[in-house]
Amino acid sequence: MTKKWWHDKVAYQIYPKSFCDSNGDGIGDLRGIISKLDYLKELGVDIIWLSPIYKSPFVDQGYDISDYYAIAEEFGTMEEFDELLAEAKKRDLHIIMDLVINHCSSEHEWFQKALADPYGEYADYFYFRPGKEGNAPNNLRSYFGGSCWEPVPGTDLYYLHMFAREQPDLNWENPKLRQKLYDMVNWWLQKGLSGFRIDAIINIKKDLDFPDLPADGADSMASCWRMVESVDGIDAFLTELRDETFRKHDAFTVGEVFNIKEGELPCFIGEDGYFSTIFDFSAHSLSDGKHGWYDAVPITFEKWRDTIIQSQLDVQKVGFEANIIENHDEPRGVSRFLPPYDQTPAGTKMLGTISLLLRGIPFIYQGQEIGMQNAKWNSIEEFNDISTIDQYHVARAAGLSDTEALEVCSSMSRDNARTPMQWSDAPQAGFTTGTPWLKVNENYHTINVASQENEPDSVLNYYRSLIALRKSPEYRDVFTYGTFRPAYEKTESVMAYYRISEDKRMLVAGNFGEKTAVLHLEKPVKKLLLTNETPEYTADQLTLKNCQVVVLELES
Ligand code: GLC
Ligand code: CA
What we know:
The protein is an alpha/beta fold and 556 residues long. It is built from 18 helices and 23 strands. The strands form six sheets. An eight-stranded parallel β-barrel has the order 1-2-5-10-12-13-14-15.
């Protein structure tokens, strides 16, 4: 395997709107991010992914871009962005940005020109199609609810949008459009970006016949991902994208890819893949309901463990995936993956250890390093997220009461991850001196950076040690390239694995159950490298109490 500069890196996702507000308008901004670079450096991360900061009407929080070459005013200026790049570089930190090129905003100049001349050049930047007997061209349902098609005013045409109606899909079949996107990507890379997180990219290939698909809901529509799964031919687009842009700059790219087809993983992340890596969403997808959040499937510990293990075994034959506990589209991992009795600082450290030492590129989501949790939501009005509001209505339409629908949204909402970063126990968690755009989690008095800085045993300080261990000169190699091998996978409530290199054998083990677990050790312990509470062990036996996690070096 060819070694790459990013193989041994640890990444951190910033959700700019909720990270740090420097001017009191309630919205996080670039100056706020610059002020926290030292904090991130001290945490030990190498790559910072910024969720979208481009100009946008924020219908979908910046994932609706109206100008790919401009910074959203809410966040600052291009000069401030350049300053951020320079300050990051000084600290040896890489910046990557979100690349949202499946769709743009309906306010983007291209779309405005297309509307002005629906049969002209710019209409071909999008999918404008005639309706069928006064109805939409087909029965696809968008990811955010309702038809994927919206009428083009003054015509019998419709335009396609797989997300919100304010997010028209870009026509990748049009070589002119593709070239404009490549120019834009190269422009940012030349500026000094180290790469991109690539949004919703699996959706760029459409079935140009746009047939009706078998309905999968009471609305007689079919989810648009069914088209994604039924169509072939994305390879040509992604190969061209890679060759025209990323490859020329040795950029690091991480794809947001769901719905990968059987056997296609090597095309995506193999030695010659489209991307450096893609996120491993296998554990998150376990809760996917058939119809929405209201019929989400509960994730049991065994399912979670077995899924991660299987994914690790599959991926290591091919390349690297990026491992996450949560991101801006998911509820907080501590609230989701830990049983209630493990939702403690010890349990939080255990979950972090298990995730960060897996084979792959760890991505920490802002606030994860202090153990942020889901918020308590008192009414649907408190949410901002477009998807949450849709899912509330989906749940109501399926017969759930207001209280029940609220409960569903409270546990699944993307806004759980988007509440402001908890910096201190000052008002609004020290995130802003004004009124935050989304409410702060009430638990900020107990969970915040400032108090954890002062506690040697805090989750934050543990994450620092954990990252330092992963990147330490002695163990960096085994945690980067070492083989993953599951351990004790038949032992109830234990998640454990080995990372093995030529001269090292590491055991990472955590007890997620309430009862104490006794593990027979394969080899004698050489060194205890990290733990959240020193366990009892002898030459051939390790005893783990509830929530205890260890990283041991064994004789190899
Ligand atoms: C991705 C983003 C999500 C966004 C969607 C549409 O899934 O992560 O936040 O809503 O794409 O751009
Ligand atoms: Ca601000």
